[in-house]
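In this section we walk through a basic example: taking a raw amino acid sequence and producing a predicted 3D structure, encoded as discrete structure tokens. The instruction is simple. Fold the sequence below.
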Amino acid sequence: MKNDDMIWGFMIQLGHNMWKEAPLYGEPTPETRDNYAQPYNRTDVKVWNEVTEYVAKKGANLLLIDLGEGLAYPSHPELAVKGSWSPERMKEEIARLKKLGLEAIPKLNFSACHDAWLKDYSHMVSTPEYYKVCADVIHDVCEIFCKPRFFHLGWDEERSRAQKSRRYLVERKGDLWWHDFLFTVREVEKQGVRPWIWSDKIWLAPEEFRKRMPKSVMQSPWHYDRFLHFVRNTEEMLKLDWPEPWAGALAFKEIDEAGYDAIPCGSTWSKPWNMEAAVRFSKKHLDHSRIKGFLMAPWTRTYRPQDVTKNRDAADRLAEAKAAWSDDREDLVVYGSVAKCIDAAIEAREKEGREPVIVTPDAKPAALAPEMDFKIRDALLDIRWGETLAKDGVGKDGDATVLRTESGKTICCVTFRDLRACHASSKPVTMQVIAHRGIWDKEVPQNTVESIKRAYEAGATWVETDFHHTKAGQMVCIHAEKELASYTGCSKRIVDLTPEDIETLNLGKRDRLKKPYRIPLLDQVLAVVPSAGVLQAEIKGYSPQYADIFDKAVKSAGLTENNIVISSFQYDALKDFRGRYPKYRTVWLVSLPKKEKFDAGRYIAKCNEAGFDVFCPGCSSAQRAMTQADAEAVRTAGLEFRMWGVNSQADMACAKALGVKGFTTNHWHKAFDWANAIGGIDLRK
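The resulting token sequence is shown next.
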């Protein structure tokens, strides 16, 4: 299909009351106001005009206008807010957009997840009053837009778990969802307009979707991340608040195979290159006769100065995607072989002691091996479509591998470490992700009962924490004196903390948190470990009584050795604990020397001497010192091989390459994004 015949759509927000109801008391804080409904229209006309003019300039031909409270509906004036555009004002705007070359298409959202714009009617779902207002508003919009070609009805993300931060939760199930959805479809079709929706329903109910979804409804499967999952796994999808990270890409293919017309949707929401990736994927895998165009949904507001920049960036990305639809560039062909590139990188790295700039040799062009294409490509997408390269083709930081197409165009830029990992590990690996000190941020300090509980509630099976035995006989959970001083302002040694200190010191002092956070005692931590959970307790301040106190507390909490793993950098302390209580699994944490060559035999012998179960080096030192042969030697010796400090995508790529069984991370949620980005990783919660 030629670009001239394609829809290149851009979604813009006129209304902003789509997500949360107005707060019960007073105004929301500046940090939260964006998601709360307001009694006034927030759109700034100057921002709106600048964005729409730029969108038209960059080649878009359709503007999908998210209306909400931004438009005053003649049949229901009670839905308006201060500053809502009148029908006459909207008609003038539609005419202006037409002169710019933009077809104006209306969008509302009747999903219970995004209907705060309906005010009190959002609490009347599936009642006669609700049906009447829906029908009236649809009729009003069709009249104001002079019977547009499409009417987008929304209908995405209606899951109660996606509304967990709200006061009022609604989720229509089964026939009721279909009844209400088809009601809005019929009301649009009565006006001679084609309904258009987000295609979320196919994620969790594919067979039901095929049986009940009318072919007259234009579909927008949307995916804002990588295109990694193409095998249906409904069990995994059900675990997510909404399953887009898992099912988004899958829906592109399933919608196409079911024979629906579609306008696939991408976004700059989480990945700047996503729009081009969506177009290239659709171009390669979908039936072009059913692709009616593409939609960019930046989900950016229109009332702040920064909104201009964000919307302009999204328009630029749409222009790049439009060019990608018609170009013939092959983005998997490189000069020379990946192996040669890696060898050159290794050689230069050894000589210079750093990760150098490497350009593939000017040899005969060769396609990547079929079994590597997908993994290599998706590992590189972030930088290929997410970073601007310097004129000389070198990455911003100068430490990158640059691959070029046969025509000489730079197609990707990635660190040597990432490329080596993708090349070296073609088999899928399974890794256990361990929440290091819980799930913490500026709102909840690390190593607190709250951060630990937060991790288990998020779905983590494993949580790692640190324990010291004080002179007063208490077992406390905190990492080291550095954290004690930083978070609480206390300059004492942890071993010298008194019971009064434990009760009064506030870990929220540094970040001026309203709620006080106390240093937890061992029994308080154990009390929040679920029956199926695992606590990895790191020995810090060891004492002769440490092991006995710990074992007694585990029993008192009703837990067993299956719930506890003991770890430490202190070889002798860990060995002593193991000797006293061999029923607990033990993890030896190590930081490998910077200058010495890794001696696998020596570390294996020490583990065997002490009876340890797991060898766990730090990620940064392991990727510097260890080879795959070293990792295999550890496993062959009967030891489980893990890593600590996997805190970036590059770290995870190294963990995959070395085949670790599990790892600790400060960024539990991000770990799943990294795994998807790299591919070939089954990350276990």
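Looking at the output, two observations stand out. Residues 329-350, 352-426 have pLDDT under 50 and may be disordered. The two ends are 44 Å apart (CA to CA). In the next section we compare this with other chains.
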